[in-house]
Amino acid sequence: MEVFTTDVAIIGAGGAGLRAAIAVAESTPNLSIALISKVYPMRSHTVAAEGGAAAVTRADDSLENHFNDTVSGGDWLCEQDVVDYFVAHAHEEMVQMDHWGCPWSRTPDGHANVRAFGGMKIDRTWFAADRSGFHMLHTLFQTSIKYPSIRRFDEHFCVDLLVHEGRVQGLVMIENASGEFRMIQAKAVIIATGGAGRVFRENTNGGIVTGDGMALAYRHGVPLRDMEFVQYHPTCMPGTGLLFTEACRGEGGFLVNRDGYRYLQDYGLGPAEPTPRNKAMELGPRDRLSQAFWHEKQKGRTVDTPHGPAVHLDLRHLGAKKLHERLPQICELAEEYLGVDPALAPIPVLPAVHYTMGGILANARTASSLAGLYSVGECSSIGIHGANRLGSNSLTELLVFGKVAGIEAAQYASQTPHGHSATLEKQADAIAQRALALVTDSGGREQLSVLRSEMAKTMEDGCGIYRLGPQMQITCEKIDELKDRYTRLRIADHSRVWNTEWLLAIELGYLLDVAQSMVYSAFHRKESRGSHQRLDGYEKRDDVNYLKHTLAYFNADGAPRIDYGDVKITRSVPGLRAYGAAGEKAEAERKRAGAGHD
Amino acid sequence: MTDEPRKIRIDVLRYRPEQDKEPVWEEFTVPFTDDMSVLQGLQYIKDELDGTLSFRWSCRMAICGSCGMMIGGEPKLGCKTFLRDYYPYGLRVEPLAHFPIERDLVVGVEDFIGKLETITPYLVPREARTLEEGEYLQTPAQLEQFLQFSSCINCMLCYAACPQYGLDPHFTGPGLLALLHRYNADSRDGASAERMQLVHAEEGVWSCTAVGYCSEVCPKGVDPANAVNQNKTASAMDYFLRFVAPKGTDK
Q1: Domains held by chain B: number
Q2: Most Cβ neighbours (<10 Å): which of A90, A411, A494, A561?
Q3: Range B223-236 average pLDDT
Q4: Among A22, A40, A100, the residue to mutate for chain B (most B Cβ within 10 A)
């Protein structure tokens, strides 16, 4: 097996991985970096983010506002010290992106413009039309080319970490084009592999979003935290789940039911005003909006589409000019995929799985419990999203904590010697044999696509917008069953060159482990909080018993072990989470009581 | 419009280097509905008919740039080309033209990526600015100068469309010349003199024979032909100025 030696290895070259690589290169130019990605970096799923990145910018805004929005938006399951760091470093990262060439949309006087976003009190979302993630990713990728210490391994698929003597020491990967195994010996490893939305059926995610890094860390004993919190984005395309950005509503769009009625006012988000007020109506948080859809569906007030009930995202009143300037990609998606011109007709939308709030347990500096292993981005749980992420906080997270991860990993690598290569190579050979067994062992009868769709179906049944204990129990059992059947997978392709069926099979293994952590974590949380809503006697938030992070520990022989960890609360004590007029009233009361600190 | 799936024939050019001496056509019949893309047709083949078919894809929404392929002889993104448009005759799907086939619909793109790395595809600030000083001021009109050219998703359809790239792979090619122009036209950037060396060179804009098919096939309206043309003008002007003011223009 070919062996490469590096100081810092980074798995995943989306926004977080690229930002981390640049941070290593800038902070410690003498360190070597291996940047590994199963696709070319600009294909990474950061590319699909549309709306923008949050950072306090306007004079009438404050870090305290961003902190309060984020912590209450997360239903108080956030690490408040980490949120403080996050909001304080957001703006400088936006400016850094500008200095690297990101084409941020501008105000007439040439400053970066900001737009409104759900759950955010003041407009603070930096944006590049509705292709913010695309422009950020390309800016980061192209900027990374400046640094000679970054060596890319594009289209290399990571199959396992090398762990020896209690610390991570590298990884084993497959070169997609040849099917050959390669080993990277590293002093530090950063996982930046993104989320796991493909665990579900209808989702906004690209095909590559399969939880690879989460599963890798998890299998090596690092807990996955808060995996039950899965975000449904309220405005997605029926059938495919493709995303219509929240910026549609940030720019003034309405959500209406079959009667043309702005139904969100019936779910504690009103009053309905002609222009949605921040933190009200269409600018409420995603969990509440997706839940409101569910209720409208129960009431039969949705419109029928070939892919099931939907509601309407009405942008007509924005006018063609504004739509094409601010939301060009939305216009393209609606016109080309649905045959709808949003200037003339409303777009049918429904909630689809969008984001995994939970992930690899990371401390405030991105370190995991395994020495030398760091994580950042959607795969990571550093603690800023709690039980529900606010739109436009995740792109900022990639930058703020991508930089932290790079600096931390660089420091660790600078102080750490390489381990014994021969031992690692032996381990790598064993890993390669296991990965090869998937394609060489025959006799299995289970079909890959069948297992994948059964997984997605049962996860949708058990871990949807609203959840029931008995149904989650069924999903737990179903995932256990699928994991068992996975051992009898039949792979038709026995070749090595670009064997994508083999890679899909490895991905399915990752997905199943992540799915298992999600459903078991959900089953054990006997309360309703943020995106985890139960209808079986646990409809209320229970701060006495569940103001806790869930920790799922991998168990090779069966169900994960579920444990709990403390939530870091520095100054915002859990309060009433309300939006619209009710939210304004609650905030005023908190201020009077002195609990809100401004 | 009908909800009942119809069936369509998809002929895919297969090449498995471990077993095929040369590319061979393989025929599949796929049930489809009106909203199904060619990519979804290929996914159906892979999931239900033949797991060995290899192709790249990810976002499904024409932004990641992975699924460029020849569909009915034209370079297109599989995810935003619809099966209904080829009914009832069926369609042929082939790997992107002008690139080496690695397997089935997967082509080698090292040439494109290698060239991308040589065009200084990043901002070299015209004037230094610290983070504390905030963002560079750039008016909407200045942004407009390059925004279109920054929308390239690197799908390489324009390379498959470019007859010149097909003849001479040394040509920098439409997409990357558009990207180069994107930085040169950015009011924050100060490295256009350096990039213009490449524009002037044999493999730069003067290789372009002004066919314009690149802009026609671009799925994002980038209009690389326009970028190339603007640089032909700039390059000619530079050339002319070198005689008028021999030391004044470069560097």
Answers
A1: 2
A2: A90
A3: 89
A4: A40
Q: For residue A497, give the nearest of B103, B113, B154 by CB distance.
A: B103
- B173 with B52, same domain: the answer is no
CA-closest candidate to residue B236, choices B199, B208, B209: B199
Are B164 and B42 in the same domain? no
What is the residue range of A260's domain? 235-353
Residues A220 and A166 in one domain: yes
Q: Which of B48, B64, B117 sits opposite A43 (nearest CB)?
A: B64
- The string of pLDDT tens digits covering residues B106-148 is 999 999 999 999 999 999 999 999 999 999 999 999 999 999 9
For chain A, the distance separating the N- and C-terminal CA atoms, rounded to the nearest angstrom, is 60
- What span, in angstroms and rounded, lies between the C-alpha atoms of B178 and B67? 20
Together in a domain, B143 and B221: yes
Q: Are residues B114 and B235 in the same domain?
A: yes
User: Considering the domain boundaries, does residue B249 fall inside one?
Assistant: no
What domain range includes position B199?
Answer: 110-244
Which residues, 6 or more positions from A249, have their beta carbon under 8 angstroms from its beta carbon? A118, A235, A255, A276, A282, A283, A313
pLDDT score recorded for residue B236:
84
Residues of chain A neighbouring B113 (CB-CB closer than 8 A) = 40, 154
Q: Does B189 touch chain A (CB under 8 A)?
A: yes
Residue B156 belongs to domain with CATH number: 1.10.1060.10
Within a domain: residue B172? yes
ipTM for the complex? 0.96
Last residue of a domain, one of A392, A422, A452: A422
Tell me the C-alpha distance between A92 and B132, whole Å: 8
Residue B251 falls inside a structural domain: no
The pTM assigned to this predicted structure is 0.97
Q: Is A431 part of a structural domain of the chain?
A: yes
Omega into A346 within 30° of 0, i.e. cis? no
Best of A98, A100, A442, A447 to disrupt the B interface (most B CBs within 10 Å) is A98
Residue pLDDT, tens place only, A280-294: 999 999 999 999 999
Which of B74, B107, B140 corresponds to the end of one domain? Answer: B107
Question: What CATH number is associated with residue A402?
Answer: 3.50.50.60
CA A232 distance to own-chain centroid? 11
Same structural domain, A316 and A224: no
Q: Domain boundary residue among A506, A527, A546? A: A546
Does any domain span residue A320? yes
pLDDT per position as a tens digit, A203-212: 999 999 999 9
Terminal C-alpha separation, chain B: 62
Neighbours of B88 (CB within 10 A): 8
Contact predicate B227/B220, CB 8 Å: no
Which residue of A lies nearest to B66 if distances are taken between CA atoms?
Answer: A43
Q: Do B150 and A47 touch (CB under 8 A)?
A: no
Residue B172 has pLDDT above 90, yes or no: yes
Please provide the size of chain A in residues. 598
Candidate list A45, A115, A225, A249, residue with the active-site label? A249
**A94 falls within a domain:** no
Distance (Å) of CA A398 to CA A193, A371, B2, B10: 11, 22, 44, 41
Closest-approach residue (CA) in chain A for B79: A337
pLDDT at B206: 87
3-state SS assignment for residue B204 = coil
Residues of chain B neighbouring A103 (CB-CB closer than 8 A): 143, 146-147, 150, 186
Look at residue A171 and give its three-state secondary structure: strand
Chain B residue with minimal CA distance to A240?
B60
| CB within 8 Å of chain A, chain B residues 96-135 | 102-104, 106, 108-109, 113, 116-117, 121-123, 125, 129, 131, 134-135
CATH number at residue A247: 3.90.700.10
d(CA B54, CA A495): 11
User: Reduced to 3 states, what is the DSSP secondary structure of residue A325?
Assistant: helix
The SS3 assignment for B36 reads: coil
